[in-house]
């Protein structure tokens, strides 16, 4: 329980084996005065919307999206925006993995389009492993318009693309206010989004394959930016 939104109820499958983590969940729920309910496995499974639920389900208040303008506010001179813009990513597992990476790499906000893209579902939530409770996320009508707003506020938009004219490892604006833009599996960045990018950067590859999975590419790019912003070499 991250404490970022109210947990309404914890539901347990009735056939769970005893385990330390289960005791921790029950104790946390009790401390926070969250009701606990136990159901037969068949009824429990009918409530879940993900595979391999592991016998524990929590219902919580909805996530509240952040306004794009709030993602641009800087807490201090050293707290420059480090944003991630996701262009048409529809696979829930990829989205969840990207959000997990973003939270671990210090991304300060994620921007998602309202249409033709995956949003926060139970499958995404599980794949993100808790990251959604700590990331600020904005929903926008379209990324191209949002990118104009970012440009007006001095944020560099850098699209990740195999045809990029510079390596992500040599990106000159890595320590500036920056927004990495990731495209969907297969089609990559959409035409207008690509045109609106201030720069296109690529990840150098040495193998026979021509591209990385988008969540793997996100991890490489995000931690490269992190290393440049903190002055610590990536390992």
List the helices and strands and how they pair.
Elements lengths: L6 E7 L6 H12 L4 E4 L1 H7 L8 E5 L7 H4 L10 E6 L4 H13 L4 E5 L8 H7 L8 E4 L2 H10 L3 E5 L5 E2 L10 E6 L7 H6 L2 E4 L11 H17 L5
Parallel strand pairs: 1-2, 4-5, 4-9, 5-6, 7-9, 7-10, 8-10
Antiparallel strand pairs: 1-3
Helix pairs in contact: 4-5, 4-8
Tell me about this structure.
This protein is an alpha/beta fold and 235 residues long. It folds into 2 domains: 54 residues, no CATH class; 163 residues, SPOUT methyltransferase, trefoil knot domain (Alpha/beta knot, 3-Layer(aba) Sandwich). It is built from 8 helices and 10 strands. The strands form 2 sheets. It has a 7-stranded parallel β-sheet with strand order 6-5-4-9-7-10-8. It has a 3-stranded mixed β-sheet with strand order 2-1-3. α4 links the parallel β4 and β5. α4 runs parallel beside α5. The protein starts with 6 loop residues before the first strand and ends in a 5-residue tail after the last helix.
Shape: elongated
Reported CATH architecture of the largest domain: 3-Layer(aba) Sandwich
Q: Structural class of the secondary elements? A: alpha/beta
Contiguous low-pLDDT stretches (5 residues minimum) are none
Salient structural properties:
single chain; 235 residues; alpha/beta; Alpha/beta knot; seven-stranded parallel beta sheet; three-stranded mixed beta sheet; 8 helices; 32% helix; elongated
Could you provide a short overview of the structure?
The protein has 235 residues and is an alpha/beta fold. The chain is built from eight helices and ten strands.
